[in-house]
Write a structure and sequence with these properties.
Blueprint: E1 3-11, E2 16-24, E3 27-32, E4 45-48, E5 53-56, E6 58-63, E7 68-69, E8 72-73, H1 78-87, E9 90-97, H2 105-117, E10 123-129, H3 138-146, E11 151-155, H4 166-179, E12 182-186, H5 190-202, H6 217-234, E13 238-240, H7 246-257, E14 262-267, H8 268-272, H9 298-308, E15 314-316, H10 348-357, H11 364-378, E16 396-406, E17 425-435, E18 438-442, E19 445-446
Parallel strand pairs: 1-4, 1-5, 6-9, 9-10, 10-11, 11-12, 12-13, 13-14, 14-15
Antiparallel strand pairs: 1-2, 2-3, 5-16, 7-8, 16-17, 17-18, 18-19
Helix pairs in contact: 6-7
The structure holds N-(aminocarbonyl)-beta-alanine and zinc ion (2 copies).
One zinc ion is lined by residues 62, 64, 96, 318, 320.
Amino acid sequence: MALLIRGGRIITPTEDYTGDIYAEDEKITRIEPRIDDKLVAAGAEIVDARGKYVFPGFIDPHVHIYLPFMGTYAADDYESASKAALAGGTTTLIEMICPGATDEPVAAFELWKSKAEKLAAVDYTFHMSVVRFEEHIRDQFREIVKAGVASFKVFLAYKGALNLSDEHLFAAMKLAKELGVIVTAHCENADAIDALQKSLLAAGKTGPEWHGPSRPPIVEADGVHHLCTFAELLGTHVYIVHTSCEAAVHQALAARKRGVNVWIESVIPHFVLDETYVERGGFEGAKYVMSPPLRAKSNQTVLWNGVKSRDISTIGTDHAPFRFGDQKNMGTDAFTKIPNGIPSIQERVDLVHTCGVAANRLGLQVMVDACSTQAAKLFGLYPRKGAIQLGSDADLVVYDPSYRGKFSKECSHSNVDYNAYEGWERRGRASVVAVRGQVQARDGEFVGTIGRGQFLKRDPTH
Ligand code: URP
Ligand code: ZN
Ligand code: ZN
């Protein structure tokens, strides 16, 4: 079915104008000040966007949906995650494939893909985690890249689980350079964290409030420096995920000054939540345990300003949903057993609009760039995604900036029993969300088709 979006204020990173957008066969086919009624197919869906913004569909470059982690599994599947994403204006997800240490990479890729195929209502692709890199599995990574996954993920953290040895890290980054794929990286020094965790627990410091002290900013900055050193030696392009603090941003920018091709992602919890949330009593703080941890408030200004100056390329979520009632509480006797993650897939765009744009920290065009276009460009999806151009996929968000409401668990489609932003004032909402020309969400409710999401094959671009 054709889709006509009439009279909206169309916002891209480089443009801001009023006009009509018409889509047929899943693509944008016309963008004009006023599209003649005669050109509109009978039965076309017509959306009145007057007084509203029209954004390219938002892209979340860092989510976990199927995630075996810390003795449990993340609580969403592609159905709940898609509904939550779409309700919040996100039309494309990039999920991390996180296999176990003994899993075969190709089998992991097939498994993760199978989880998405029947249930996704958004388009999706993956970053392929390299959790070990022996010679004999090298060809499997080549095969995965050929199959359309043009980015790797490495963990410098999570000793004994996802963490990669330096020998394997170096070899994986060398292959990435050869194949032209970017390496996304969780940068925290695993051994330092392990030692700090052990000494805190030995001192009886077991509550969620000790999670932050077990991984201070310097541990993250060290990880960033380490990754960038390898990138400098090898010429590999790297993307630091969930950069949380001034010290880590500083290291990445210093590396960039030395000529390293490094990009920075930060994720929404670090912009709006600070360490005091994890310090809440009665185990409430467990809801806010993620890694890197929530930081001192002063870091938030650094992150917002970094986005504004475009030093920070993207704002993702690191959506990693674990229920409070029966998952987070696995760590009542030791903070090291609390599954890490703060679900935010539905709230990201509205939080950026509410706490960024409406609070005069960011402009609308920067918001679009950071929440959509940059991810498309960095990960080989542009201009199919992240753009409002003729020929682009008709992934479009009609956004009502005058909407007023509250963030709440009741509004959330994610399979979790809490909302980290419960009761916060919300300014703005996606009124209509289309994926490839079909409306999939309206006013926070899913109205689309489960299983319609497509796997996005990506070519190496680095
Ligand atoms: O706390 C987090 N970030 N959980 C998900 C796993 C990861 O490190 O991305
Ligand atoms: Zn991580
Ligand atoms: Zn993550």
